[in-house]
Amino acid sequence: MAKYLAQIIVTGAQILGRAFAKAVQNEIQASQHAARSRQTGQVNNNDAAATSLSGISLQEAKQILNVSDHRNVETITKNYEHLFKVNDKLNGGSFYLQSKVVRAKERIDQELQTTEANSSNSSRNVEEKQ
Question: Coil, helix or strand for 88?
């Protein structure tokens, strides 16, 4: 009986050891991948900076306003106005949700301004080269 108990303990320890080693390897790989992605370039840095300033990611803003394309200004404005009115405190809405709607609109507007600035800079560079 003691022999079987010892075998179970040894086998269990081996399984746990392998699982722990694999988890450590995965964590090291994820850390290295994150370090490489931080060094990839300006686009990721701009997006991270905009997210940290507004406190909301572009993906989250699109989900809140229920839009799939952040360049569709008409749909964004329509959804924003509707959600803002529905969540008005005077109508029994939630100030928290209303503020989330406002932040989502601000984040999408910020992304549109960045996109416009980048496209105007690139068109200026093309004109200067000609």
Answer: coil
Do residues 87 and 98 lie in contact, with contact meaning Cβ atoms separated by under 8 Å? yes
Give residue 45's identity as a one-letter amino acid code: N
Residues 46-87 pLDDT 10s: 666 666 667 888 899 999 999 998 889 999 999 999 999 999
Give the pLDDT confidence score for residue 120 in this predicted structure: 75
Asked if residue 105 lies in contact with residue 80, where contact means CB atoms within 8 angstroms, the answer is yes
**Residue 65: CB partners within 8 Å, gap ≥ 6?**
76, 79, 80, 83, 101, 104, 105, 108
Question: Is 51:58 a contact under the CB 8 Å cutoff?
Answer: yes
How confident is the model at residue 96, as a pLDDT? 93
Query: CB-based burial of residue 60 (10 Å sphere; 0-12 exposed, 13-18 middle, 19+ buried)?
Result: middle
- CA distances, 30 to each of 16, 23, 35, 75, 84 (Å): 21, 10, 9, 38, 40
The answer to whether the pTM exceeds 0.85 is no
Could you tell me which of 71, 55, 52 has the C-alpha nearest to residue 113? 71
